[in-house]
Structures
1.
Amino acid sequence: MILVGCIVLALTLLSIPARGAKGKEGRPYTSYRWEDSVKQEDTMAKITARKADSLPVKAIEGDSSARQTAPKDSLPKISVAKDSTGSSAKEKKDSVAAGKAVSTRKKRGPRPQSAPSDTTEQSEETFTAPIEFEASDSTIVFPKKNMARLYGNAQVKYTEQELTGDYIRMLMDSASVYATYRDVPDSVKTNTEINYPKFKDGEQNYEAKTMNYNFRSKKGYTTDIVTQQGEGFIIAKKTKKREDGSMFMQGAEYTTCDNHDHPHFYVSITNSKVRPQKNLISGPLYLVIADVPLPLFLPFGFFPFSKSYASGIIMPSPGEDSELGFYMRNGGYYWAINDYVDLQVTGDIYSLGSWAVNAQSNYAKRYRYSGSFDASYLNTVRGDKLSGDYNKINNFRISWQHRQDAKANPYRTLSANVNFSTSTYNHNNLDALYNQARMGENTKSSSISFTQRFPNSPITISGSMDIAQRSQDSTISLTLPNISISMSRIYPFKRKKPIGKERWYEKIQLSYDGRIRNSITTKENKLFQSSLVKDWNNSFEHSIPISASFDLFDYIKISPSFSYKERWFTRRIEKAFDPAKQRVVVSDTTYGFNRVYDFNTSISASTTIYGFWKPLPFLGKKLDMIRHRLEPSISFSWHPDFGDPFFGFWKPIRYQTPDGKQMEEFYSPFEGQGVPNRGKFGGISFNLSQNIEAKLRDSKDSTSFYKRSIIDNLSTGISYNMAADSLNWSDINASIALRFTNTIALRLGGSFETYLYDYEKNGDNIRPYKTNKLRILNGKGFGRFRGTSTSFSYNLNQDTFKSIADFFSGKKKDKDDGDKKGESGSSSSRESGMDSMGSGMGRGQEQDGSLKRSRSNDLGEYDSNGYLKSDMKWNLGFNYSISLGYSNEFDTRIKEFKYQLRHDLSLNGQFNPTKNWNFNFSANYNFELKKITNMSCNITRDLHCWSLTASFIPIGPYKSYNFTIQVKSSLLQDLKYKQSDTPKFNTAESWY
């Protein structure tokens, strides 16, 4: 036993690796350059002793032979020269030491007649650059055979190529290498990473079970290769690599699933040719899902891998719609025009007669501009001619976004945000049917604007085209052009070289704003039938405000102002009473130059008053001071009665009703284009704004203080018109703003009526009107509340109640919780059956670009007992709006309008029971109708390389559903199943 122990100890000492750099497992690496490895030629050099169990016997079988025989599936052998060439030992030694593949005999010339008959021709396929290799276990070099064997985390580097594996054999004369992996017993496979051979050639990465490669010829043969090309992975049983980089594969599988050992789906290919990062061309192929071959067979296939910007055909997506029939959608051509602009033209066609054409373009130029353009035309056919519900609708949509870079031009700006479409476009576009925001879109706006500023000048010129649409009644308002010429504030009387104090007239400031408008409001189908002269309204408006600000007694600010406006028109109307229609109608329209103007003047005085209150001791020591800020202001403004016949802006019409009553109405010949108001005004306005804040002592530092708002703002205002003959007092306006926390605030605003109401009764018709009786003088208080409105919104999630509990318990959040949570949440899931498609097991692409096969014991979403983990994420948001105001119903008993309460509640939520399931919904509830007005629900399931989406609208006019299961990768976006039921609309409105 003692003898056996000594032998074991001696063998152990011999197996200790040489001192060097440490490897991945903490064991020293043996790293050498070939020219530094050995200096002997006729003996085997054992660089590092190899452990007996470092590699299975089959991997090192035959190492003691004179020449290692390559496996049957390796490249053909290349003959190696014998030492009988006559070259000296020193010449061979120097060539190896230099790290160059130099022939071991003299340069070839005419063969001597007396050459020995057993002389073998030397191979020229040797290494042409230094080769570096290392291994964590052992490295054995056979210098006489020009061969080396590397065991344990072996690595070979040659120019831009790198090969790693558990076992690598190098044949230096033939410039070839062979690599394989070390098999792991089943008893220790759990959580053990298998070090499959990996080959890196520039940006290309390959992984296989066995690899044979010749560095000189760049040819190779591999088994069970895995390589990523574009968005997908190619797995092949046998692969031959040619010198041009192309590969011929047999028994290949193409998939976008990164679970390579057992992909959830793949395209099975018999024979194929792969050009890396370019394309794959194959023979017969068929689809396999969950190991079940499907009867989807193609005689050949083509898969592009190019990442470059290139033109190409866009394959259409098939499907079925319950109303439009079978379809082929989004098929067309993509044109890469140049590096700055592209164009995509696609079309849709349906079996029941509908069709669509779409054009999309993106453009960009660095530091100049960027944008996109989208145009669509729909021809929708619904119903049947025989049943009588046939209708044909034409719709189109134009979308344009243009953004100019701030560095392009500091004085000139062009921007566009166009979203123009016919009123029924969203109802007939399948992409918008399940988008609640687009389906409920009633108003749309578009604008194209241009602004020109001038350096060292207050002048700015801007122009725009503005469009406003209302889908509910197909009303469109178009303004073209809308030109503005403005001058920023200037001080015309300020001296260029001021001497002494600033004089009062130097504070006078002046600005100018001019606007040219040409607008029309009409129906969509009548826009292009309108007359530019008769139907369009045009005007040129000038506005010149003049103001100044002075300090009186250092505490009161006096601000006088004067404003003048003038408008030019080209249209003037005349009205008259039509006895036949018993109403006032337009009797005549004339065109020419017309002008109206108005002006007003005002003066105001304001100041700020501060009050401080020291709280009583019983309120505690934390409350140090309360500050009350008041900002009272008083102003007087005046303008004449522009309804006076002197100005000619308003005209009366007198007529007699059928019952003999004399009536008088006033109209303006320039109505609809901006007319001064009738009535003289000379009023005084009173306003008071207040703010209350508390100064609190910091509980942690007695010398520190912070402010807390009690009332952010409380303002009231009222005015008195001295020029009016009745109803001199205005309503009392009030508003309040309270802030409870940094994120929660309440704002309310309303008005109070100061006069009483009365009414006139004509049969069943009741006409309320204001009397000249003040409520305060008739025992009804200062005023009657007219109404107010407010809204409140908040979001709840899985951390809300925990944060509230931590707040009241005084617990502080640990900064490391997030890191711990991130570590625990990084695991992948494991589910059975079809749910296994959500697992993250298998091998994927590492951050360094290499491919990796692993076996993991991670249970993912399940604990060690097989129960689902309770790390559930959810979010619930709600918005509640409430308004209280006058209704249209007048109570004749109390002679007041009745109040009406309106409130709405909108909900939206998201729920993730597991990492791969996601539920979200949105709904609106109307309390007046006492029902849910609309609702939409969406369910998504992450199936690893697939995704499942189900959308449905259970109630309302857009009741429908949509179910889709498809591959995530955009390369195989047409590999999907889709079923839908679209809402039915009965509208035949069209532009044509």
2.
Amino acid sequence: MKRILSVIILLSVYWLVIGESNLTFAKSSTQIQMDSSSDMLMNEEIADTTDTTQEISNVPHSESFVENTADTSQDGTISGTSESMLPSTRTEKSLVGNGTQSSPFLIYTYNQLSNVATTINASSYPTINSGTVYIKLMADITSNGTRVTFSNSKNPIIIDGSTTQNSSGNHYIYYTGNSGYAGLFALGTGNMTITFKNINFGSKDSPRSNYYGFCYSTSNNNIINIQDVHYYAEIGGQPFYVIGSNSVLNFSGNNTFVVSNIDSNSNQEFAEFAGTMNFKEGSKTAIVQKTNAVLAFIWSYSTINMNVESNAQVFIQSGKTEMFYPRYDVNLTVSESAMFTYLFDPNLSYIDPQTVFGDSSDYETIQVSGKTNASTNNFFSGSANFNLSAANQSQIDFITTGYPFQTGTLDINTQDTASIKFLNQMNTSPALNSSNTSLKVTNNSKNSTIYNLAKTPTGSSTTPVSELIVPGTSSVTLTSNLPKYSAIVYEPAVKVGGIIASGLSGIDENKNPYSKITSHLTGVSSSLDSTYTYKAQYYVTNDTSTVLDNATLNNNYDETVATQTHLSGSFHTSLDSLPSVATEVGDQSTLASLDQLFSSDYTVYGRLAIISQSNHQTYYTSWENTMATIDSFQAVTLPTLINIDDNISYTTSVGKFGMSFNKQISYPIVNQSNRIIEVMPTVLTPMGNNNVTIVTDSPNDWQDKTLQLQLNSDEASIQWNFGNLINPTILELQPYWDIKNNVQHFYLDGAYSGPFMTSTPAIVDYTLAFSINPK
């Protein structure tokens, strides 16, 4: 008579069958795959300082303040009719608030601002409020020409015009006075700090202003903060008159300043200024100075320091004869990933400042007929030093639509900057003239980047003349030969526009698992000759909390180690050449992959290494970065059919039949996932044909048709007793790349009670469920 004991596993299920014939297990494997499835005002403090209150009586440089519809007297008074469209006159309300953050002064009229100034200028006010003075505009207000002067140096002042009453989110302050010398606000002493935020000064319907600006200051060490301010003037336009020593102008948020007119000479500079202008981190400031009065963009009273902080953007449109007047030195510092653009254009039309920070194809032009009276385009009214410093990935552009830039000694120091450009959009004219002008650029790259000073001949479509500047060296100083070039562009000799990466995981057509990052660089090109070769180098990490700097990446990248932790690693591909102009083929040549990574979110960094075959020196581009995700992929291989005949031996002792498991056949459980997997049997369920009882312990002879069955692994120290699946030992398997620990081998063991000689078959029909989970 035949005796059969068969075990079949289907997906995560074991089927066990016992019959009368040979006790046989059939063996095969399959894979189980599962998918894992209104703003508060800031509270500021300032140290106590004292200064002597002084009379504000300074008069700006001698220029007339004229409008076609108005008569201007010798003292700067404008008579005539303003074309303003202003709010109707309001009944004066009593002053509300004491200036503290919890009880700000609430302003409905300009007269109330005067009353606030009187209140806080009093020597006793700091006993009421020792901190910042908060002034909140509750309505659009109008100045008729009477200046509001603050002279309290003990309390910083914040004037906030935020509102939900119009689409701009700012209240308006209008000016209807006839005096060009009035100003709207003044700081009457030194060591003061005042902030203007969320305010619109003027509008197209009410474009009158004055050339003492909306903030007038002649005292030393005053700080003026500008945040989310929009200024518009066609008459008397000059936002700032701040000439005290060591003055500071800070621009934060998004700001626009537009001074534009057709037939008036009453508009002057963006600022008369002495000190430092800071365009704060992440801010955007767009300035338009397009008028018939063409003296200068800034009238300097001292050396001017302009700092464009990291990720800030400044875009200046000017039709002025000088950028700076008269001839004080200027220091321009453009920090990491910041942008500074100065566009000279003698046409009165201008680019809408709301569009200048997008792609140039999205610029919208405000049409104004006519031209400014500019006849030249000078950095200074005479020779002076223009010192420029450009940091990592920053960009500086000087663009002209006609007259070339001239009169300045330009000394440019760079540290891994993205580009510096001098460009005449009329390529038949030079970008820079030789009149009192020189240009020198120094490469201080910390990233060992070669730069190219490319000079495009005037009126020519030929290839630009290249001058390679290796780290630690300077360009040849350009002077008399400047008029030869319509464009002079300083940028990396080898360029990378960006990086693309994707995470991939699964099992390929050859049943091999993979879990990898695939990446390539974009916009790659080189102006170098065939004596250079290249490597596309990549570093990947699951640290996505911050973007690593170049120095850290240079240290972490290790071509000799791929995926030591399987959560980070380095990989590369070698290239013999790159195109001179970026192409898809050139980009795809940088494609490379790194396999055997855990499922996770990753930051992927990439760069090009440039190897000189002549001196074997290696240079680099800056690191680019992007994000990629490798999805969790679970694939576990389990035995599905076991031939019991291969696992047991029959014995006869004293005329008595018996059976034992020989433990010779190994049944692997293999993790082909990209995660650590935990496996354990959970439920053994008898099915309809079953007539054999699975028990915990070895059965006695008198226990008819009773089976004790185990799946054991000596290497994993695991015994899974199918008769007791309460809290079974968990099998932990490492990911597929750990070929030593991603698999464990099991064998069958157990005991059967009998009977062995019977005409009634013993049938074992069970379903065994497994729990398979990522750790």
